[in-house]
Amino acid sequence: MGSVGAVFVLLSLALLSVLGVPPIGTQPEQVHISYPGFPGSMEITWTTFNETDESTVEYGLWGGRVFELTAKGNTTLFVDGGSEGRHMYIHRVTLTNLRPASAYVYHCGSEAGWSDVFAFTALNESCGWSPRFAIYGDMGNENPQSLARLQKETQVGMYDAILHVGDFAYDLHEDNGRIGDEFMRQIQSIAAYVPYMTCPGNHESAYNFSNYKNRFSMPGRTEGLWYSWNVGSAHIISISTEIYFFLDYGLDLIFKQYEWLKKDLEEANRPENRAERPWIITMGHRPMYCSNNDKDDCTQFQSYVCTALLSVCLLTGVDLELWAHEHTYERLWPVYGYKVFNGSMDQPYVNPRAPVHIITGSAGCREKHDPFVPNPRDWSAFRSTDYGYTRMQVYNTTHLYLEQVSDDQYGKVIDSIWVVKEKHGFSAWFSST
Ligand SMILES: *[C@@H]1O[C@H](CO)[C@@H](O)[C@H](O)[C@H]1NC(C)=O
Ligand SMILES: *[C@@H]1O[C@H](CO)[C@@H](O)[C@H](O)[C@H]1NC(C)=O
Ligand SMILES: *[C@@H]1O[C@H](CO)[C@@H](O)[C@H](O)[C@H]1NC(C)=O
Ligand SMILES: *[C@@H]1O[C@H](CO)[C@@H](O)[C@H](O)[C@H]1NC(C)=O
Ligand SMILES: *[C@@H]1O[C@H](CO)[C@@H](O)[C@H](O)[C@H]1NC(C)=O
Ligand SMILES: *[C@@H]1O[C@H](CO)[C@@H](O)[C@H](O)[C@H]1NC(C)=O
Ligand SMILES: [Fe+2]
């Protein structure tokens, strides 16, 4: 380099030290994984702020030769709807032919920058497997109180998948999407290691849910709005309750989702499918019922969500319905249309005669807690305003376990139930007392 060049470099460095060094826009960040819904697969998603020539995942079996396998995928340009119109490149790579229940090590990126090294375990595809979940909604970038505990528990291998039941970051689109970036960096410590499965909440509504649709990668071709997947003896359905509230984005979505849901439920409920995966579990952001002291839909008699979904869930014998939105935990007795249908007085969840509902929206966010009404209706079984999250294990075709962790009480389990069903489907509602 000649002296003129050297002077130029020095000048440039001086200028940079004044202006601040620009970040390397091709460096991968916000790495997270999700299950694409077919055996032996896992999808890796990440962000760069500049375009890269390719989107590559290098991976290999844990303990095997490092990065001996390579998979390539696609990039989409996501332009945030805010005034700055920020550009983000979302990279998606689907890994296939993974060996079930085996651990893999991976990194992602391109020749212009690689991520840290992460690991995940491919799902065990057996119907006899007993997957373990952490479930919560309403976790923000500010005051995400449960996050540290979830990070540690995920990294020590307590969960096979995470279900985040809507409301992220508060909000993904804020500060021209920078809050979304921060949030996706925060959850990388969980979401880069186990499938992070989502549904949209009201906080994702900006610009027609575009931050949600672009940042996550869920099964199906519905931009993560509604989809289903199988794991162990469970069929898990994720829906958008938000289509009933943001009608400006399209009334047709209500009919499209309903038609899809009805078909999906009928398929899952076919005798041969139900025999293999008898637990039908739904997740959606806004609950059908709740006993919170606010004006939300679930506090109303005949809520929109109830009106829309009640009968189809009953007719196909949905076993368990997971909700969030209220920043509390509430467990309901088996309930249908405001009436309690316990299995029996002594063992309400043994052969329950209506779906079981759990509301778990207390992971922690800047809006803090929601209060309860002092005297709940008779379908309310247990309530807590502690920050925390739910654990679930689908043991086998007859037994499913749920427990609630209080982060305020340093991880104490404050509630737990076994749901036991010798029979699933519509006829199960009439089978016992
Ligand atoms: C990287 O992205 C930024 C922001 O979009 C843009 O200003 C810059 O020109 C890009 N750099 C390259 C080398 O493409
Ligand atoms: C990438 O795009 C191609 C062509 O559209 C498609 O076939 C492929 O499935 C995509 N891959 C991923 C990982 O989405
Ligand atoms: C998957 O789970 C089943 C049922 O628990 C078990 O028998 C099987 O060994 C597991 N598969 C692997 C590869 O670990
Ligand atoms: C909002 O998004 C949905 C799903 O992508 C789309 O079908 C609908 O047309 C969009 N609505 C508007 C008003 O752009
Ligand atoms: C349901 O079972 C619980 C627990 O035994 C009991 O407290 C409640 O009264 C029962 N509700 C009805 C309507 O039977
Ligand atoms: C299912 O798991 C429960 C709890 O471990 C056990 O008591 C029950 O016998 C199992 N049932 C079947 C059908 O394997
Ligand atoms: Fe919400």
TrEMBL record:
Pfam families per UniProt: Metallophos, Metallophos_C, Pur_ac_phosph_N
InterPro entries: Calcineurin-like_PHP, Metallo-depent_PP-like, MPP_PAP, PAPs_C, PAPs_N, Purple_acid_Pase-like_N
Enzyme Commission number, as recorded: 3.1.3.2
GO molecular function, one term: acid phosphatase activity
Ranges for domain Purple acid phosphatase C-terminal: 354-416
Gene3D superfamilies associated with the record: 3.60.21.10, Purple acid phosphatase-like, N-terminal
Keywords: Glycoprotein, Hydrolase, Signal
Domain named Calcineurin-like phosphoesterase: residues: 132-329
Residue ranges constituting the Purple acid phosphatase N-terminal domain according to the UniProt record: 28-121
Reactions the enzyme catalyzes: a phosphate monoester + H2O = an alcohol + phosphate
Signal sequence range: 1-20
Domain of life per record: Eukaryota
Family matches, as PANTHER family: ACID PHOSPHATASE TYPE 7, PURPLE ACID PHOSPHATASE
Family to which this protein belongs: Belongs to the metallophosphoesterase superfamily. Purple acid phosphatase family.
Identification of the protein by name: Purple acid phosphatase
Organism ancestry: Eukaryota, Metazoa, Chordata, Craniata, Vertebrata
